[in-house]
Amino acid sequence: MVNGRLTGLGIGFAMMVGAFVAGPAWSGSSATSSDVVSPYIAYAPVLAIAQPAPAPTPAKKPKPVRTRPVRTKSGATLPIPIDAVLDAGVLIVISKATQDMYVFRDGEYWDRSPVSTGKRGKETPTGVFPILQKRRHHRSNIYANAPMPYMQRMTWGGIAIHEGKLPGYPASHGCIRLPRKFARALFQLTARDTTTVVVTDNAFASSADARLLAKHMPMPEPGQRGHLIQGREPQLAQLKARYDVSLAMAEQPMRGRTRMIERETPARSVAQGRVQTIQLAAAESEAEANAYWARIRTRFPELARFEKRIIPATVNSKRYYRLRVSGAGAGASCVSLRRSGSDCFRVR
Asked: Where are the domains of the chain?
């Protein structure tokens, strides 16, 4: 009897729920199915079970900057990226067109020297290279046991930097020859795991040209049997149309400064308020420069404390608008921007 009552109550409750959900259709109304369902959609949350909110997608960690050469499975050694050696390391930039070498230590211009690169038929390859080996006393195993003092090997195919004769034109079998004193000083400065070498066909007028070109050189890809596949180098004239290097042409080399000058330098340090200027972009219109400033200031709020300027300039008959900021510590902010993948360089 009790079971019968419970069954009857269950059936009655089910009929009431059905009438509530079905609405007019249960009562014999002629409304269509769409008319029946839509008014009761609002009640669905009462009967539905609350679902937990989806977990937020974790932000991707920035890819760490490689600061050491890497040996690949094919045996090729990839050089340290240019930005990394400019931050902490030695960058050597060689122009075959002007037969010059420019050297930077920790991002500052260290010194320059004339060179003699490979002659016709034995041209020095262009690209970005590591230092694979260093030997104070070395002799060529290819060219009649020729002496190669202060040898710094760039490839396993016989290309290296070393002391040699400089006739004033390309005369080597592919190596980069240096004067004795400079070869010795450079040998003492570099280390295999902190040095990158750039060789280019572009002509340089200053250390600023060398730095600008190096920063935009494509990094090589690993090839077979230890070789590197070099990318196509950019044209310096096109880079200079986008970036202003004129104010950097007067920078003096670090090597050769007297101790008195080195002691006086801290008086103009950033810590005591030295004003530095950095360039963030070169836009084709003032509006574009302002729009870029708004975007990059959102990503890097610390830039808001600097004085912003947009400087119009004409390069090769084309108008550009250079976005610059000035203030104490601007150089340090520029380093942070480069580490995060944003382009930037010091003007002064």
From this structure: 2-47, 70-248, 269-346
273 Ramachandran zone, left/alpha/beta (phi>0; psi -120 to 50): left
Task: Dump pLDDT digits (tens) for 287-322.
Answer: 888 888 888 888 888 898 888 888 888 776 778 888
Tokens standing for 1? 């009897």
Backbone Cα Rg of the chain: 33
User: Residue 316 burial (CB < 10 Å; 0-12/13-18/19+)?
Assistant: exposed
Measure the CA–CA gap between 302 and 317, rounded to whole angstroms: 35
pLDDT digits (tens, 9 = 90+) for 10-20: 555 445 544 44
pLDDT at 210 > cutoff 80: yes
Q: Phi/psi of residue 165, each to 5°?
A: -75, 140
- β-strands 133-135, 151-153 pairing: antiparallel
How far apart CA 151 and CA 139 sit, in angstroms, is 9
Give residue 93's Cα distance to chain centre.
17
3-state secondary structure (DSSP) of residue 17: helix
Note the helical H segments in the chain: 2-22, 33-37, 44-47, 82-87, 180-189, 207-215, 236-242, 259-264, 286-299, 330-339
Length of the chain: 348
Give the DSSP letter string of 253-298.
Answer: PSTT--HHHHHHGGGG-GGGT-EEEEEEEEESSHHHHHHHHHHHHH
pLDDT at residue 34 in the model: 42
Class of domain 70-248: mainly beta
Tens of pLDDT, residues 90-122: 999 999 999 999 999 998 899 999 999 999 999
Residue 176: strand, helix, or coil: strand
* pTM of the full structure: 0.56
For 269-346, the fitting CATH number among 3.40.50, 3.30.70, 3.90.550, 1.10.10 is 3.30.70
